[in-house]
Structures are given as structure tokens and as C-alpha cells.
TrEMBL record:
Name listed for the protein in its UniProt record: Sugar phosphate isomerase/epimerase
Entry keyword Magnesium: no
Alphabetical UniProt keywords: Isomerase
Source superkingdom: Bacteria
InterPro entries linked to this entry: IolE/XylAMocC-like, Xyl_isomerase-like_sf, Xyl_isomerase-like_TIM-brl
This protein's record includes keyword Isomerase: yes
Natural source organism: Bailinhaonella thermotolerans
Amino acid sequence: MTRWAFSTLGVPGAPLAETVRLAREHGAAGLELRVHPDEEVRLGLDTGERRRIRALLADAGLEVPCLATYVRICGDAPDREVLEEARAAIALARDLGGAAIRLFPGGVGDGADEDRAVRRLDALAADADAAGVRLLVETHDSHPTGEAVARLLAGTGAAAIWDLLHPWRHGESPGATMAALGDRLAYVQIKDVASPADLTPIPLGSGAVPLEEAGALLRGSGWRGWVSLEWEKAWHPGALPLPEALPGARAWTERHLP
């Protein structure tokens, strides 16, 4: 059975206990935890805080399908800095019971970007395996399409997050994204916007993102992984409050991926 979650990006700065209550009220099975200095979940938490957060989530019956980090696996920062941040995120995911960490590409889309990413993903593989944490690269920024992320991941053990917005706004159809990612697809983020130029979150089904097409493709493929609503309230403060979007996310998931 497909499980649905939502990202804490939709309630920036909110106490995690309040977000947990929101998840329970709306029937979410998990929380995608944003890892950021402004959030309760952040790198550098001490052991006691990690235990408290893990217990809070477990007591509520919530899973942590992904920690949304800001590690840029293709970026031009020194390898040491990127690997240090990624390893800290892997350890945090392990301690919180998280199944995966989200990595951004974060490059400029040239061959050197991808060489750096492959080198770093290979260097992180043993750490991730030992922690029981998957490395997931999102269709985003320098590699917004399924084709681009699949090329980046070739020859590595990492997998992909399909953010439904970015491939579409860069001209790649849902069918092409799914075909490109193939068995690398491990996680799906859903959202809707009015147009490729206006990225303010709006309720699912009221905008231009081809959600129905994507849902039909996932259903037809027998998808049984996580689907997460990424309501980007942190970047678009004028967006509706997250609670107003959650019923639509639950309904979309139940309709397309029972």
C-alpha cells in the first residue's frame, strides 16, 4: 500500500510536536523532515534531542521516509565539506529512524558536476549502507529532469526523488521522467502551481502540474513507495496554510495509489 507523507517545509519553524499532531489529524503515515538551522530538526543535535524526536515520532506511529537536506552533491565546494555535511545527515537520519536523505544536485549541469557527484556518492555508499539510509538525488536545480538525474546516477548505488514540478516545468513529460528514472525511482514529491513561471503552492488539482497523468503512470507501474506533499511555505509565505492543502494530498494519493 502506498504511504503518504508531507514535508515540514510547509510549516517553517513550527514545533515538531505541533506538526506531529497535524499529521495524525490528517491521516498521514509519515513526515518528511526538513533539516535546516531554523528548524527543530537540524544537523548538530545532541544525543538527547535525537532520542526525544525519535520517540515523539514513534509514539505517534509516524515514519520518517526522508530527511530533506540541503547537501549539494554536484556543487563546487571542496569534497571534504560536502562529504562531512552528508555524513552528518546520514547519521542524523539513522538516529531519527529516517529511511533516506534528500540530496540536491546543486551544480551547473556540466560534466564536471556529474564527475563530482559520482565520486562523492561512491565515497558515501559505505556510510549509508552501514546506517541503513538511502541516498536520494532530487530532480532539481542543475539536473531538473529525469533524464539528467538518471545520467548523474548511472554507475552509482543512489536512487532518485521525482519532484513532479521540475521535470514538467523544464519540458519533460511525466511519462518521459518515469521512463528515464526506471528502477532508480525511490520517492515522489507532489505539488501544484499555477504555471511554470508562478511557483506559489496551490491546492492539488487547481493548477497546471500534470498530476492526473503522473498519478495514472504511477498506478499503472504498481508504485508502492512513498508520496510526499512538498508545500513550499518556507519559500512562498503568501501561500495558503499547510492544513488547507493536506486533505487534497490525501485524496490524490488515495485516488491514484490505493
